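Hello again, I could really use a second opinion on something today. I've dropped the whole record in just underneath, so have a look.
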Amino acid sequence: MKVWARLITEEQIVKSATTECEPFNYVHEFHACLSKLCLELDVPTPVLLTKHIQHFVQFTNCNFLPGDFVENVEFDKLVLENITGKG
């Protein structure tokens, strides 16, 4: 699966990255993909909650807000989207 991550500030994409990930059958696979994307974007990895996984599975995307990070971040949200087969 191909996942696109976007950092959004004031409704503008300020940075983005894409990566190939294994389909998420387990939480640790989702976390591994999330960590890989955050490393590429040079941002801390947010806390992964069940609501993020459920939203990603149901709607093929999920948002991480500043409150989902232990560290302070300089963006409004991190959006992950499954873009497999799009375009």
